[in-house]
Amino acid sequence: MNVMELFNLKGKIVLVSGGAGMYGRSITEGLGEAGATIIIASRNTESVEKAVADFRVKGLNVHGISVDQAVPASVNKLKKNIADNFGKLDVFINNAVSRPMKGYNAPIEQFDESMRVNATGAMDILREMTDLIIQSGGGSVINISSMMGMYAPMYSNYEGVPGMGDIAPDYCFHNAGLIMLTRFMAKTHAGKNIRFNCISPGGLFNNQPERFVENYCKKVPLGRMANNDDIKGLIVLLASDAGAYINGENILIDGGLYA
């Protein structure tokens, strides 16, 4: 098959949870540019509607559905809506995240809330969307973790940056778990024509303070932070037939920071 055809997602139905967020928008844009029909799902209905409108101006086939992945009934409703309105699901990008814990010494109740969304909720939506993909004939699941699920925080990045550097442990905890859950799912669903992979990005530029950017970039062999396009190619690879023999992997995108 021609390599451009391998990357083509035309006719594929793709769900991106957290698709209205910063990484979610980049992921959605890349998938849409490759020809996919995309459903973005988030708790924030207003942000979903705005994102859908922005993408449609660009000519991308994007739809929005509200979901709260911490509520099983909401996840089940999402699953039914996709089956009823789109007839199938080919790809799921498990990208939604909540950040209720504000630092190491934050109340333990914030850790519990984080786990409800980012661990229990992530597992619930992953299991339900996996079931729908298998019912649809197979496809691909891509979990979005973080380099902070692989490595301890690099506190020197925050030197001279007031207000930054109090890292919340829940983020590292649930992202590390998501990497292993990817491997678990790949083995558990062997022989069902479905692939599970994980992407662990890091260092996305988001208008951080100048000193932080300087501290960070001098450690990165590429000499810069990630931009909004850096995740798009890998997402399309793992979602498409071009990645048909990649399964159970976690891929780090960090510009060589941890090389």
Summarize the structure.
The protein has 259 residues and is α/β, with parallel strands linked by helices.
Q: Which residues sit in consecutive blocks of at least 5 with pLDDT less than 50?
A: none
What is the overall pLDDT average?
Answer: 96
**Strand content bin:** 5-15%
Corresponding CATH architecture: 3-Layer(aba) Sandwich
The strand line-up of the biggest sheet is 3-2-1-4-5-6-7
Query: What are the secondary-structure elements, in order, as H or E?
Result: HEHEHEHEHEHEHHE
Describe this structure in words.
The protein has about 260 residues and is of the alpha/beta class. It has one domain (about 5-255): NAD(P)-binding Rossmann-like Domain (Rossmann fold, 3-Layer(aba) Sandwich). Helices cover about 40% and strands about 15% of the residues. The chain contains 8 helices and 7 strands. It has a 7-stranded parallel beta sheet, with helices on both faces. Helix 2 (about 20-35) crosses helix 8, helix 4 (about 70-85) runs parallel beside helix 5 (about 110-135) and helix 5 (about 110-135) packs parallel to helix 6. The relative contact order is 0.15.
